[in-house]
Amino acid sequence: MGVIDGIELGLSYIQRGLGVVIPLALLITISYQVFYKYALKGKKELNYQYFLLGIMSLCYAIVVICAVFLDRGTNARVVVLHPFSTYGEAWGLASLQQWKNIILNFILFIPLGVIMPLWGRKWKRGYKVFFFALFTTLLIEVSQFISMTGVSDIDDVIGNVWGAMIGYGIVRMFQERQLPLKRYIKKSIVWLSPLFLAIIMFCSLYSIYQTKDFGNMASFYMYNAHMNNRSITFNDMDELPNQANVYRKVVNENINEDLVEAIFAEYGLTIEERIVHDNEVTYRSYDHILTIWIDYNNYYLDLTYTNDVEESDGNAKIIIEALSDLGFILDEHYRVGYIESSYHTAAQVYFNHDFLEDHTVLGELTCILNKDGLFNDIVYRLNNCESITTFDLKSLEQVKNDLKAGHFNQTYLENEENHIHVLDIELDYLRDSKGFYQPIYIVTTENGFIVVDAKV
User: How far apart are CA 203 and CA 29, in angstroms?
Assistant: First the structure.
């Protein structure tokens, strides 16, 4: 969910809250003025300060209920009790969306910390706000567990209470402006300490990330996987490589709009429509006979040609030449395989990176050639990479010890039984959050796979 989508969703929750409290406020006001004051001759005055505060509190409660229960169905009762595990996941993926979700947990309860001290002296004590916020967020997490809406996560509790204390500190600083200056400064530092700590934490994480030579890995873990009640055995395997390169993607300048125009010309068509979304562009001909989509972040390309022409069983040379005619230049290290299915035989172009030391190509290019010498489908997912540096790798024995100790992400055990049998361990590459391809080990088991960091 993008920022705009998040704002729109938040505004829709506020609208729902206002849709309830505005009619209710009107009903109470009319009842007070017409029935109580006029008909019953009541003498008590309505305290409009607390009346408006109550309306605000009710509107906020409705917003919170919508935020934590609507569109959150998981159809499962999921509990996460590891503190800061979501922070570790967001760090490993360097996922802006996940960091947004973490920050939203803070923001969601800031109004609670602001509203409570406004109810009078009773709620001006920080510990009362703390325990009320803790009770409220625990009630939400238990309700989510019972109703199977969302994930009951200890990090939600931490973020909610932290956010409430930020709001409390801000409002108390404004409420006590009449204090002597020295005392006011000391108390303000205490009141604002939750805000300062949050700023320091997020700024420190950002600074550490920016100064790292390489990005974070999706295989990053903060807590060891639970291996206490699991046994693990291994097939006989050869020793693993001692070293591996780290690669950086080289921009494929051939994937551009000039290439798109050349392809359309080769098909005898022209570009009639361009659809731009972020860094992705879709090009279409009249009646959408030919569609080309390009992701300009990764320089990936998809081609779909809907003119009904029978597929060709062309050999590797014909396919390579046809790709070259369209502008896809492939060198001698490529080889062509075939994917058989009930619908068609697709040519799949591979790259044998064992031949090269200073650079490699990761990914694949899948295509279906028709008898007119044109392609019905192309899925281009090749990344040209150059070597940046070399890392020493873990030995087979070290990887086995990592597996036995649970030095990997817990999520890889979701499909595993109490006994794990490892079939094979292979060197592979995973793209980190800064675009570098770092070496990892893919551990293939009878029920799935586990990713282990290959670097020593």
Answer: 47
Q: What angle do CA 203, 206, 207 make, to 5 degrees?
A: 85
In degrees, to the nearest 5, what angle opens at C-alpha 84 toward C-alphas 83 and 88? 140
What angle do the packed helices 3-30 and 48-69 form, to 10 degrees?
140
| The two three-digit tokens of residue 89, written as one number | 């996941």
Cα–Cα distance for residue pair 268/252, rounded to 1 Å? 25
Which tokens hold the place of 449?
Answer: 């796979």
Which phi and psi angles does 340 have, rounded to 5°?
-90, 135
CA gyration radius, the chain: 30
How do the pLDDT tens digits run along the chain, 456 residues long? 555 666 777 788 888 888 888 888 888 888 877 777 776 667 777 788 888 899 999 999 999 988 888 766 566 677 888 899 888 888 887 778 889 889 999 999 999 999 999 998 888 999 999 999 999 999 999 988 888 887 889 999 999 999 999 999 999 999 988 889 999 999 999 999 999 999 999 999 999 999 999 988 877 777 888 888 888 999 999 999 999 888 887 777 778 898 899 999 999 999 999 999 878 999 999 889 999 999 988 788 999 998 877 766 656 677 777 888 887 766 555 555 555 544 445 555 554 444 345 556 667 778 888 888 888 888 888 777 788 889 999 999 999 999 999 888 877 787 777 889 999 999 888 888 888 888 899 999 988 889 998 998
As a whole number of angstroms, the distance between CA 404 and CA 345 comes to 43
Would you give the distance in Å from CA 270 to the centre of its chain? 37
Specify the 3-state DSSP secondary structure of 300. Answer: strand
